[in-house]
Amino acid sequence: MRVTTVTLNNYRNWARLTLTPHARLNLVSGPNAQGKSNLLEALYALVTTRPYRAARDLEVIRFGEDFAHVHATLHSESREVSCEIAWQRAQAGGRHRKEIKVNRQPVQRLMDVFGLARMVLFTPRDLQLVQGAPEFRRQFLDIMLCQLHPAHLYALSQYQKVLAERNRWLRTLAASGGTSRAAAQDASMHEVWTEQLVRWGTDLSDRRRASLERLAPKLERVYAQLCGKTDHLGLRYLPGVAPEPGESTAEALARAYRNGARDERARGVTLFGPHRDDIAILLDGRAMKLYGSQGQTRSTAIALRLAEAEMLERDGGHAPVLLLDDCLSEIDERRQVALWEYLSMRGQVFLTTSGWDSSRALPFDGTVWHTKAGRIQSMVDACVA
Ligand SMILES: Nc1ncnc2c1ncn2[C@@H]1O[C@H](COP(=O)(O)OP(=O)(O)O)[C@@H](O)[C@H]1O
Ligand SMILES: [Mg+2]
């Protein structure tokens, strides 16, 4: 897949941007706060329909304007797809709006969009994949799986819906010391919710486990390519409920809810299930989170994203677009060279950096885009070292 045109209107600091990206490397350079990350955020919004840096979608609308618009043409397997998203501030008493169009036709559901634009994004926030709470790692897996399997997105939304209902019931019950009449009346619903939770939870957990088994060897290879073969990087799935030997995922979940019923009622919350999953990231068998150096942590985060891209490629048959925000800072020269070498074998890349000397040759085919105060200019075309 590759992005053949990009147009931004009133997207953050970009009043208007029209870009015809290079099919291989697009090196977006320029000082801080010029809109480099904003450009990558806009492109990635085409994958999830949510700007990843915004707490509220409307933050992306340029200060003082009423709407923001992102349009890109994607070229994939000799087909062109036009994707756009528009955010509109509320007008006189109305509500704000978001409109998504594929080939100029409005689409309603996220499911109709996920998987169309295959892109993988690295940002400095991805250090959280290694160091942060389990939630970051679950989200990493889920976004990848949603791009691979629309069924995963559906299972995820079903699971979250049931979990919220079940938690509300447990909370009411716990607050009333187990005597709330309404909650008691809902007791039969509890059984239904638990059953549903087992059903969708099994779906999520099995897919996460299977994808991790395929991701792990890719990650190990990519990490070795970037950092040398001496370190072995491994992944292990840590399910919220681990099946006993011979037990299926569904049996394990059902057992946990059965045995933990009293605890759940006392605490007023669902204590078991894939919403408590985690992934262990291990360097030579030791937790990276505890023992990894700054450089190792950063390389691991980048390697996770590159391995994610390889996963999407295998299933989709074409390489996803790589969006790499500030991935060069804080990694040493040798690893930078290894990264360039890796990227030279991939598809289209957008890479931002504040430290590119415009006289320096590009490591492979591409364009240097110089950004300054919401303007962009191509500096060098197809200059190869
Ligand atoms: N909604 C918005 N309207 C206008 N400017 C914005 C908006 N949101 C962020 N910005 C500006 O964008 C700039 C940061 O852009 P960013 O892409 O993060 O820079 P960098 O080039 O360092 O990656 C800041 O100056 C910020 O004020
Ligand atoms: Mg930035």
Task: Give me the strand/helix succession.
Answer: EEEHEEEEEHHHHHEHHEEHHEHEEE
Q: Examine the coordinates and then state which fold CATH places here, giving the name of the CATH topology of the largest domain.
A: Rossmann fold
Largest sheet: 6 strands, antiparallel
Structural class: alpha/beta
Identify the CATH architecture of the largest domain: 3-Layer(aba) Sandwich
Biggest sheet strand order reads: 2-1-4-5-6-7
The number of helical segments is 11
Mean pLDDT: 91
Bound compounds: adenosine-5'-diphosphate, magnesium ion
Q: Tell me the radius of gyration.
A: 23 Å
| Share of β-strand residues | 15-25%
Beta strand count: 15
- CATH class wording of the largest domain: Alpha Beta
Distance between the termini: 25 Å
Number of separate domains: 2
Helicity, as a percent range: 40-55%
Low-confidence sequence ranges: 380-385
Looking at CATH, the homologous superfamily of the largest domain is P-loop containing nucleotide triphosphate hydrolases
